[in-house]
Amino acid sequence: MKTSLILCASLAALAATSRPATAVDEGMWLFNKPPASELKARYGFEVTPEFLEHLQLSCVRFSTGGSGSFVSGSGLVMTNHHVGSDMLAKLSTPERDLLATGYVAKSQEQELACPDLELDCLWSIEDVTAKVNADVKPEMSTGQALAIRRAAMSAIESAAREASGLKPEVVTLYQGGAYHLYLYKNYKDVRLVFAPEKQAAFFGGDPDNFEFPRFNLDCTFFRVYDDGKAITPRHWLKWNEKGVKEGELVFVAGHPGSTERAFTMSHLEFLRDVRLPFGLASLWRTEIWLKTFSDRSEEWRRIAEDDLFGVQNSRKALTGRLAGLQDPELMQRKVDAEAKLRAAVAANPEWQQQWGGAWDEIASAQAAYRGFYHRFSALGGGSLSLGSELAGVAKTLVRVADEKQKPNGERLREYSDSALESLEFQLLSPAPVYPDLEIQRLTMRLSSMAEVLGASDPAVVAALAGKSPRARAEELIRDTKLADVAERKRLYEGGKAATDASKDPLIALVKALDVENRELRKRWEDQVQSVERSAYAKIAAANFAVYGDSVYPDATFTLRLSYGKVVGYEELGRKVPAFTELGGLFERAQERREAYPFEIPASWANAKKKLDLDVPFNFVSTCDIIGGNSGSPTVDRNGAVVGLIFDGNIQSLVWDIAFDEVQGRAVSVDARAMIETFRKVYRANALADELLRKGPHGS
Amino acid sequence: MKTSLILCASLAALAATSRPATAVDEGMWLFNKPPASELKARYGFEVTPEFLEHLQLSCVRFSTGGSGSFVSGSGLVMTNHHVGSDMLAKLSTPERDLLATGYVAKSQEQELACPDLELDCLWSIEDVTAKVNADVKPEMSTGQALAIRRAAMSAIESAAREASGLKPEVVTLYQGGAYHLYLYKNYKDVRLVFAPEKQAAFFGGDPDNFEFPRFNLDCTFFRVYDDGKAITPRHWLKWNEKGVKEGELVFVAGHPGSTERAFTMSHLEFLRDVRLPFGLASLWRTEIWLKTFSDRSEEWRRIAEDDLFGVQNSRKALTGRLAGLQDPELMQRKVDAEAKLRAAVAANPEWQQQWGGAWDEIASAQAAYRGFYHRFSALGGGSLSLGSELAGVAKTLVRVADEKQKPNGERLREYSDSALESLEFQLLSPAPVYPDLEIQRLTMRLSSMAEVLGASDPAVVAALAGKSPRARAEELIRDTKLADVAERKRLYEGGKAATDASKDPLIALVKALDVENRELRKRWEDQVQSVERSAYAKIAAANFAVYGDSVYPDATFTLRLSYGKVVGYEELGRKVPAFTELGGLFERAQERREAYPFEIPASWANAKKKLDLDVPFNFVSTCDIIGGNSGSPTVDRNGAVVGLIFDGNIQSLVWDIAFDEVQGRAVSVDARAMIETFRKVYRANALADELLRKGPHGS
């Protein structure tokens, strides 16, 4: 039969094209679809439901955009310093600079309540793909289908919330190939327990960021409270005192933010030629504006420090990502992989009929997006982001008031009923707002709007209201009342009547920009997002049909499992060992003449004699991670902590697009270095004891 | 008569519209058209031919892009440290870092010969407008007229060179309204005499750059030699030991680089919405790439230091310029001025007939330029600039070989016979070239080319030759032989046959890009430059007719005279005094905790007790300057040195577009601070003595 011949041909093509996933430690796997066969084949490891449940329920997601884990029976949570630094900044004042000094709570009474930090622990996962797609009809446009799915997702979330009391989130996987309902236990009373000074956490600063060898104590500990008491989590990770050795299998459980590995060529070209260049230019601008702001005074340095770190970190990440996209060899591998999948689909008439058009559909979506991407981005993008905290407050107030007028299923996703509790918590945060920094941020955004759109553009003219970007920013921040949380509360509770009646200049600014912004968002949903969802669902189906279901979805800032081994690599003909030691920090400082940012932290200089300088400090592994994984626990075969993910090396930055373990590595703080320094540098013996205490899940 | 009525109307309009030039100390005046009546009216100063000749012949232009002046009868030349820093870097090695240590020659024998520094002293000026336009016919297209003028300019230069032995340059003034022949005495044997350490010259670094109050000893001294001996210049400036006082009249004679004050609105909008945003994004990219490069090691910091300073300096300047263009109030003044001139022209039918179309012609040129500006810039612009020194060498070799095939009058201007001597001197410079920095520069440019044009663009594909930007840059710099001056000489002397036969990869890269680049340059000349020249000539004529001839042309990096008074200003309600004192450096350092870049130079710390801390250090004046004026002498009514221009304050950055003396100020090093520190900090008594020695032009 002809069909079977074609099938044979496609299977033959397959044999040659089978994905390299099993040849390397690739994959950010779903907890409900773990890489069982790969682990068995490569490491002889049997992944059990108990292992997965224990890890899953020990992990948390930080609302500041990172990962963490419970590491004691008393609600202690471990994450990175650079994940916690937003809170450290918010808990600081000119007199108490926690980034500069670090913090050690001597007792639970001294633990500092964070103003607006939320942790989410993934409680359950359910595949709701069929429910989400239930009312989608073949004759619908992609835009109609998107609206139907959106309504279904909101309805599923509302029902789940009602039934469970948990925080629901329908997650779009495989760019639209599947929909899973995640239910989270949400924690809002989170307190600071321990942080080293930034000079120890981020020794080497921007110059050494994303580099290896490294010497960073990039950790911070919080504790979760409920009703005034430290909680007792159902699961928490024990500590492996002996640590890990080169060659051993390790796992990382965390929340990788986003990857674009399954993107089609036209989509990658859009990233390469449009989105990343625009994003990078915006980061360069922001970095330089923030740096010149910081340079003007010690206090301005302090208040802009966390922003500046974030921008520099993103800039390095995007630079590496763009370099990957601009590498013709890497792109050729992508071209080849796409061609093989398309050939396999084309070889089966039924598949071709169902899925064959997907690649061209995505190309047409990218072409459409090129026509308005710059304008949309300059006007704040889908979330109408204007750079300033207070403009963000104004945006939330205006949009939530408008959206609440609509039925739940018709709202913008971020204003659905299930999102409002967190939204309100963030909106009414008592965290400090710095007018000087706000003016700088807003000047920056107004100026960049004028640069991108031209200063005579009606939207720019409306935003500037006859002033220069700086004069306008000064006026807006001087005259707004939104720094006052009580005023925010009044407007939030007053709903649309209150925002309509408001004369606040930031509210007025948002209203002036929101009409066009919503039009552009609608255009994006209709011409880009919905087309992508529909087409990627086809590609996902094609992938499953051709390669079977052992395909993991691109990262979505939801819980994933990665695995790999601790192993060094070669660079410029030299061997880079897997581990560094505590003593390396002192050597690196000397090599760089202790000039900024290579100064030895004073606490370390004082403790040097007591420290065991041979204790492993940082180590690399082949675990597949990306931004968002920061703060993830690195665990051994028993699920015990051996390290704390805090970075990837420079060669790992292309992992966004394609995993490769020749040189790319994930970087962890070694668990042994934490205990050693907690005891000998920070006199944080209580913390060390708590980590080593054997609990119900201890061995 | 109708005409006279119209004339009366236009004169009446005039009365209301007369330029504010006499109300403020505005103007970068030609030495052959000095602001005699303004000086008389505002300061009771009679400007004499002797005063002008003395100043003119005492001034020099630096090939590194700055100004300077003879300050002794033995060929001593004063300029800024940041003008001389390019030479300081080229004279440095890993073991001898002149930027870090400074340099004091104890005798003429110790003076260090610079590898490729040229000084030009303006010997004579002749108006050749009629000659340049002699063969232009009304029926010609603007492109044809441009070619005719270009041929005439080259012929005038060749003849002048033949007749005088001097270095000729036909300067385009008033954007095409006039052409003057400048003849320069050119000096190529220039040696380093004195430089302070950069920490004293550039105390406060980028954070304090363009700010005031300032505390900078931004000076460097060279000496001009001829035939192995220090020259005896015909004119040189004496030193005013007593210095200047607040309120006194001062002059600045120097080479302002370029301004855009006479630009039409459409041209300013092009700057604001296209050229400056693109230029700034390019500076941001370069600054961050160079900064991350510098941060990797002490040696890389040293070799990139001068590049990084240049980029940061330009970035601040352009940021201020763009802020001015984005200020609706400033732009409204420009709109009003243009409307008044156009109304005055329109009111006279003959004028309207001759000149009335000029503004629309310029608008159409800008519209045309918008269509290919980004592409042209990304491909290196008119000069095919590729960021790297060695790629620049390759460009020069390829282009000069091609251009020499043509008659002198048909060549690109920069390859005309009169330009070849300097071109050869620069091309065969023995200055060091650093491969690591070259790779970084080239990676940066290849990557930005891909960002702007898209990585699939044929020009990008050709430039990358299947490699990533970094891999390609590494290959090009590894394989080129152009670091070898002998190879450059061989190719230069071998002409087109040699470059055609060359297999050098950088030569090949340039050839691959030059075809399209030349097409774009031709398009720019035909559709933009020639149209602007023709239209601005009309506007200049209109300006002369309406406002008389007391109009100065925009800056062209040629010698100009500015005047003003020493006076402070108000900022944020506080008085900013005109002078700072030496002691202020120590106070500012303390205020900034002596953190980088506010460390007290070690030599100053050692000398503090001896120093008279009350000696004036830096001062501000209303003299009208811009980039290129760096290193200009500030002189008193007698033409004696009272200071050394090194900066403008942040409020002066909009002077590029419009002068304003409410807060804008030029900043000078005080002559007294130089003598005091030369003697007490640097033990450079011979230099101080030479400056104070009375010569033939001394009082």
Structure in words:
Two copies of one chain form a homodimer. The first copy, chain A, is α+β, with helices and mostly antiparallel strands and about 700 residues long. Chain A is about 50% helix and about 15% strand. Chain A has 26 helices and 21 strands. In chain A, strand 2 and strand 3 form a beta hairpin. Chains A and B meet through helix 10, helix 11, helix 12, helix 18 and helix 20 of A and helix 10, helix 11, helix 12, helix 18 and helix 20 of B.
Question: Layout of helices and strands, plus pairs?
Answer:
Two copies of one chain form a homodimer.
Chain A (H helix, E strand, L loop, with lengths): L1 H16 L11 E2 L5 H8 L5 H10 E4 L3 E5 L5 E4 L1 H10 L7 H4 L1 E2 L7 E2 L5 E9 L1 H5 L8 H23 L2 E7 L4 E10 L1 E7 L2 H4 L3 H4 L11 E7 L2 E2 L18 E6 L10 H30 L3 H28 L2 H19 L2 H7 L2 H13 L2 H6 L10 H15 L16 H8 L7 H19 L4 H7 L4 H11 L5 H17 L3 H43 L12 E6 L3 E3 L2 E3 L2 E3 L1 H9 L10 H6 L8 E6 L11 E3 L5 E8 L17 E5 H10 L4 H8 L7
Antiparallel strand pairs in A: 1-14, 2-3, 2-7, 3-4, 4-11, 5-10, 6-10, 7-9, 8-9, 10-11, 11-12, 13-14, 13-19, 15-16, 17-18, 18-21, 19-20, 20-21
Identify the quaternary structure here.
homodimer
Number of helices of chain A: 26
CA radius of gyration of chain A is 25 Å
- Shape descriptor of chain A reads globular
The strand count of chain A comes to 21
In the CATH classification, which architecture of the domain at 31-118 and 188-260 and 553-692 in chain A applies?
Beta Barrel
Major sheet details of chain A: 11 strands, antiparallel
What is the helix content of chain A?
40-55%
CATH class of the domain at 31-118 and 188-260 and 553-692 in chain A: Mainly Beta
State which percent range the strand residues of chain A make up: 5-15%
SSE-based structural type of chain A = alpha+beta
Low-confidence sequence ranges of chain A: 1-21, 695-699
The chain-level mean pLDDT of chain A equals 94
Distance between the termini of chain A: 60 Å
